[in-house]
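Example for tutorial group B:
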């Protein structure tokens, strides 16, 4: 059984101030060590050591990184004296030529201000003159080995293995992986969170145990599977593994025609939801009930288009646009293909592969048609928000981004662009919160880390921005 954070940090250490360095060793999900979202609770406060965030009743409380380290150290040793020398040795490095006494006094003052504490009648931090400090309030270890995103169960979909024996079929297995990530993200947005494609695809072709994947991504469940295609027939096998004990929670095999793949994706998502005792949302139940078969070649062209879109190259994007257009020709009410076409044109805009006026016109036409056909898709709402952002129509952009997030809170792209909109609106702390959500959903993404650092900088939180840059480069 895993020991509590507080007891583990006290035991076996040369001094109780071992806590101060926890934030460094656990700041990156990609490490090979056990990933723990170290959270300490006291009173109405929650201190997340990994993200250096202090919250009161779930709402962020502004506190700079150095005071956070001091607070973490004191809270982890609640009831015990932590000497000034212990604080100096762990938090102030030996080669730092800064007035330690002045720096520590400043940190304590900032902590007290954040907690609403008073030196003369302390509830949290007691000063022991010329000796050190003692944390007075009871502290509860709220750490979880498999953290949940906003109270949700977190799940990762590993890249489906291509068993066809043909390298040119990789687009199909990769596409099915991405489609399952999207399908699961819509199952019950309030209960289930799904790790984004960028992080999931890092495991493609790599031998990793389920236990290691779960630790690195911080998830409770891992879905893995394979796909074998022969002509217009597809065989998909899948199994869901619970990370805590490596048990097989659910597994099944399916033989379907290409035209039934959308129904299969919904069936898979429903089976997984049932296995982990999550009910489908009413919106998803309605979507599944109204789903119709799709032309087999249209589905194949759609997956190929998504595969090429992810290359982000000029030629790849041009070919992706052709694939989506051909998919639409074969299945004219294919909302996802219109959404993919809009994504292509917006990416061409962002990479300067198309003139803005051309990209705007093409993307706008495609995204409006996608929403006409299915206004519950997060992707086209995000694309429309992206368009409105370029038009400086802030209110319309925010409306689209929030609708996208309502439909699929696990869609990292919506959070990414929403964060950038919030910066433009001067709502910097909200922007940082969105950037942190992107990193929670997509923990292996270098772009997500860079984005968080940038938004912290724009928010004037320079120390945190520097720390994020250091973590990204570590």
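The residue assignment follows.
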């Amino acid at each position: 059984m895993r020991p509590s954070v507080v007891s583990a940090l006290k035991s076996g250490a040369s001094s109780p101030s071992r806590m101060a360095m926890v934030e460094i060793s656990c700041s990156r999900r990609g490490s090979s060590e056990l990933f723990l979202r170290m959270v300490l609770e006291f009173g109405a406060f929650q201190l997340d050591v990994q993200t250096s965030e202090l919250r009161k009743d779930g709402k962020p409380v502004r506190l700079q990184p150095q005071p956070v380290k001091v607070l973490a150290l004191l809270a982890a040793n609640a009831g015990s004296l932590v000497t000034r020398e212990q604080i100096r040795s762990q938090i102030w490095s030996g080669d730092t030529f800064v007035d330690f006494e002045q720096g520590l006094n400043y940190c304590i003052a900032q902590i007290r201000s954040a907690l609403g504490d008073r030196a003369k009648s302390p509830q949290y931090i007691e000063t022991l003159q010329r000796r050190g400090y003692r944390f007075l309030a009871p502290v509860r270890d709220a750490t979880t080995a498999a953290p949940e995103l906003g109270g949700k169960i977190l799940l990762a979909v590993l890249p489906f293995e291509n068993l066809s024996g043909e390298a040119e079929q990789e687009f199909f297995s990769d596409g099915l992986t991405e489609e399952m990530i999207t399908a699961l993200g819509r199952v019950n947005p309030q209960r289930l969170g799904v790790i984004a494609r960028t992080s999931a695809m890092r495991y493609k072709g790599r031998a990793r145990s389920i236990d290691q994947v779960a630790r690195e991504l911080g998830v409770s469940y891992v879905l893995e599977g394979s796909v074998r295609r022969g002509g217009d027939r597809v065989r998909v096998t899948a199994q869901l593994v619970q990370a805590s004990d490596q048990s097989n929670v659910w597994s099944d095999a399916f033989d379907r025609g290409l035209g039934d793949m959308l129904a299969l994706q919904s069936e898979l998502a429903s089976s997984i939801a049932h296995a982990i005792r999550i009910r489908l949302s009413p919106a998803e139940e309605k979507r599944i009930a109204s789903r119709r078969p799709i032309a087999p070649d249209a589905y194949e062209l759609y997956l190929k288009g998504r595969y090429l879109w992810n290359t982000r190259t000029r030629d790849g994007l041009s070919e992706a646009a052709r694939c989506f257009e051909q998919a639409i020709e074969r299945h004219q009410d294919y909302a996802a293909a219109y959404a993919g076409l809009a994504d292509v044109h917006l990416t061409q805009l962002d990479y300067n592969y198309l003139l803005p006026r051309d990209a705007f016109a093409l993307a706008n036409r495609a995204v409006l048609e996608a929403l006409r056909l299915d206004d519950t898709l997060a992707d086209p709402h995000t694309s429309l928000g992206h368009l409105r952002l370029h038009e400086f129509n802030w209110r319309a952009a925010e409306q689209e981004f929030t609708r996208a997030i309502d439909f699929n809170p696990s869609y990292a792209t919506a959070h990414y662009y929403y964060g950038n909109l919030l910066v433009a609106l001067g709502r910097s702390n909200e922007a940082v919160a969105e950037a942190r959500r992107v990193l929670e959903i997509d923990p292996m993404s270098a772009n997500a880390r860079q984005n968080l650092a940038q938004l912290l900088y724009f928010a004037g939180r320079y120390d945190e921005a520097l720390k994020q840059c250091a973590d990204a480069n570590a």
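Confidence is low (pLDDT under 50) at residues 1-37, 144-148. Compare this with the pattern of hydrophobic and polar residues in the output above.
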